[in-house]
């Protein structure tokens, strides 16, 4: 029996946000102690075949932690010790924010899903920037996900993103403009062409690089094409697909499905993969694939659909700390089975 099979019932007996905070504190306690290297010995898969180069960054393995799990950049080294090949911290906003009232995170157990309406709760760019400066960086790439402060009007968004970027600029290996969270009123309206040009152009002019944009799975296809036009025009380095959805697929069984917020996990897996494919077919920049990944088959499918690397959040909640190791091992098996020498050889093979 794995450790998580013992721990999971206790964690799942707690309210979801309490369970998250408990796990987070545990990992913070482990980070920087001898226990961190014990985790590394247990969970890190060292294999050259897993290495991916994308937007000038070397990823030792293709499975990373998605934004939102470590909002304040407190546990990137502990997450790397769990075998993740990159960690995207944040969303960080210019202002410190409490987020929405609790409860704001819900388990949809029968659906292996979560709904969240956290609302960018985070300590703010100044505090996170200081922490990034003070604490040692992880030995895997660290991305920084940047959101907009709730109190900043949409037409002042570019300066708000710029402020945060400047505070965290020295601490990140890549930067993500998040205009796709459903939990900050109006945020997703910033996915239109003019707003993207302004925000992405401002950050790019300020030297943000590599710079990526994270898209919503709810965006109409024409709007995705517009966004990709801006990606090309500004010379962005990559696209992350996808954030959570406000849609509620009919198949949802759990009572929590009626909660407001963004749905993540298994029920969005197919839609996320479809958007990865759609994006990869229309741009030459690398795609970071995220949405519902919980096993090696799911990660492999996204890679074959055009994702250079993948990320997950909800899978970690349901599958536990061995998830990155299990996916990495599983990927090696699938590469062997299908005659690929490396993960890089499998990227996009299912595209037309
Ligand atoms: C509780 C929670 C908080 C999140 N916070 C952020 C965030 O701050 N910024 C962001 O871009 N995505 C955020 N996300 C979205 C995830 O990064 C990811 O795109 C989404 O959950 C789909 O992946 P998954 O199905 O593997 O969870 C959050 C997700 C969850 C569940």
TrEMBL record:
Binds 1 FMN per subunit. It catalyses: (S)-dihydroorotate + a quinone = orotate + a quinol. FMN binds at residues 67-71, 91, 145, 178, 214, 242, 265, 292, 313-314. Keywords: Cell membrane, Flavoprotein, FMN, Membrane, Oxidoreductase, Pyrimidine biosynthesis. Its cofactor is FMN. Its EC number is 1.3.5.2. PROSITE patterns: DHODEHASE_1, DHODEHASE_2. The keyword Cell membrane applies. GO terms for molecular function: dihydroorotate dehydrogenase (quinone) activity. Substrate binds at residues 71, 116-120, 178, 183, 243-244. Pfam families: DHO_dh (PF01180). The keyword Transmembrane helix does not apply. It comes from the Archaea. It is a peripheral membrane protein. GO terms for cellular component: cytoplasm; plasma membrane. One of its GO terms (biological process) is 'de novo' UMP biosynthetic process. InterPro entries: Aldolase_TIM, DHO_dehydrogenase, Dihydroorotate_DH_1_2, Dihydroorotate_DH_2, Dihydroorotate_DH_cat, Dihydroorotate_DH_CS. Residues 245-265 are annotated as: Disordered. Residues 50-333 form the Dihydroorotate dehydrogenase catalytic domain. Catalyzes the conversion of dihydroorotate to orotate with quinone as electron acceptor. Monomer. Belongs to the dihydroorotate dehydrogenase family. Type 2 subfamily. NCBIfam families: PRK05286.1-2, PRK05286.2-5, pyrD_sub2. This is Dihydroorotate dehydrogenase (quinone). It comes from Halorubrum alkaliphilum.
């Amino acid at each position: 029996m794995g450790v998580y099979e013992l721990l999971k019932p206790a964690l799942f007996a707690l309210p979801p946000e309490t369970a998250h905070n408990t796990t987070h504190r545990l990992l913070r306690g482990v980070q920087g102690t001898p226990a961190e290297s014990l985790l590394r010995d247990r969970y890190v898969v060292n294999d050259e075949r897993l290495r991916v180069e994308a937007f000038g960054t070397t990823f030792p393995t293709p499975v990373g932690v998605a934004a939102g799990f470590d909002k304040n950049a407190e546990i990137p080294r502990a997450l790397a010790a769990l075998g993740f090949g990159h960690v995207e911290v944040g969303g960080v906003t210019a202002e410190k924010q409490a987020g929405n009232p609790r409860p704001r995170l819900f388990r949809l157990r029968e659906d292996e899903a979560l709904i969240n309406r956290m609302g960018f709760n985070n300590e703010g760019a100044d505090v996170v920037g200081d922490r990034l400066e003070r604490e040692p960086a992880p030995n895997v790439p660290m991305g920084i996900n940047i959101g907009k402060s709730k109190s900043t009007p949409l037409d002042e968004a570019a300066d708000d993103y710029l402020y945060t970027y400047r505070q965290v600029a020295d601490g990140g290996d890549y930067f993500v403009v998040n205009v796709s969270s459903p939990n900050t009123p109006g945020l997703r309206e910033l996915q239109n062409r003019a707003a993207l040009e302004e925000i992405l152009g401002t950050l790019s002019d300020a030297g943000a690089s590599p710079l990526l944009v994270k898209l919503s799975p709810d965006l109409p296809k024409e709007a995705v094409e517009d966004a990709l036009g801006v990606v090309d025009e500004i010379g962005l380095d990559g696209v992350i697909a996808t954030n959570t959805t406000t849609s509620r697929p009919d198949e949802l069984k759990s009572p929590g499905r009626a909660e407001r917020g963004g749905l993540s996990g298994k029920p969005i897996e197919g839609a996320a993969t479809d958007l990865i494919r759609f994006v990869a077919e229309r741009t030459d920049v690398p795609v970071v694939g995220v949405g519902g990944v919980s096993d090696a088959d799911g990660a492999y499918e996204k890679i074959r659909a055009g994702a250079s690397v993948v990320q997950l959040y909800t899978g970690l909640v349901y599958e536990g700390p061995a998830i990155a190791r299990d996916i990495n091992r599983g990927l090696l098996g699938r590469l062997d089975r299908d005659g690929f020498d490396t993960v890089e050889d499998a990227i996009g093979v299912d595209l037309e």
